[in-house]
Amino acid sequence: MEAVTHSSFANESPHLSPRDNERLEYLGDAVLQLITAEYLYKHHPGASEGELTQTRSSMVNTNTLADLAEQLDLGSYLYLGKGIARGGGRSLKSLLANAFEALLGAVFLDAGYDAAYHYYLNRYRSLPEPAQDENFKGRLQQVAQERFGQTPVYDSEGARVGSKREYTSVVFAGAEPLGTGHGATKQEAEQEAARAALESLVGALKPATAVKPPRSRARRGSRQPRRTAKTEPALTEPVPAEPAPESPVPLSVLPSDDAAPQIAEPPPSRQFGGLE
After folding, report:
1. pLDDT tens-digit profile of 178-222?
2. pLDDT tens, 225-272?
């Protein structure tokens, strides 16, 4: 129950659930960073540090984790305070992402690192296409230098909202503000401010599309001569199909298969068994 208990519910109903999922979220975040770092290090030996970091970002960003939580219908199992529940908290991306990290932390405590490793990667591979974590700050810097000849400057402040801090950031290029953003961290707020600035400067932004791994296609065997009234059917044996050489899988997408065994999942339960 702890893994799916939001702090708002624990504060309102301490007699039912005295502990929220923030500690498990903290643990799950650390486990997730190790899982993705280990996987990429082993499976992409030729990648640079920057490439590994960028790929890991797309695997663990809020949008990706929220998609994984939606796969599990995790929002329906969350214990929320009355205010957050009425305000649509069950579909809030940041809340769903935090809940998935808490769930992963509970899997780690109950079943160990290997189980958490395969649990996350199996879920991630099943996504239609990985969510992208675009570097809006980098794009804004290029646009601002081209248009204004200046580097963007961010003015960020944090304020406590309930048990967590929320940050607001305003980005400037000169004296004029270009955009404002909000987020759970200073970095998220600055990215949102950069996104807003880009939308005002260059119009609507098109989301980046994830490249899917290429499929290997077998070559067809040699065609047999057609039968005609004047020729006898060829007696040559058909040539067996030969697999085409595999194309390298882009870093932004995980391979579709792994030697890791698939873990059978129990049917969803609103109590989540021992995942506490």
Report:
1. 999 988 888 888 988 988 998 888 774 544 433 333 333 444 444
2. 444 444 444 444 444 444 444 444 445 444 444 444 444 454 444 444
130, 63 in Cβ contact below 8 A? Answer: no
Assigned architecture for domain 136-202: 2-Layer Sandwich (3.30)
- The domain at 2-125 falls in which architecture? Orthogonal Bundle (1.10)
Concerning whether 155 is annotated as a catalytic residue, the answer is no
Query: Given pLDDT bands bounded at 50, 70 and 90, which one contains residue 31?
Result: very high
- Specify the domain boundaries for CATH 1.10.1520.10 within the chain: 2-125
Q: What is the mean pLDDT of residues 46-60?
A: 82
Distance between CA atoms of 243 and 216, rounded to whole angstroms?
A: 7
Does 2 participate in catalysis according to the annotation? no
Structure tokens given for 266: 């129990």
Q: Which of 12, 29, 134, 276 is flagged as catalytic?
A: 29
- Range(s) within the chain of domains with CATH label 3.30.160.20: 136-202
**Residue with tokens 């085409």, as numbered in its chain:** 244
Q: Which of 2, 67, 101, 192 is catalytic?
A: 101
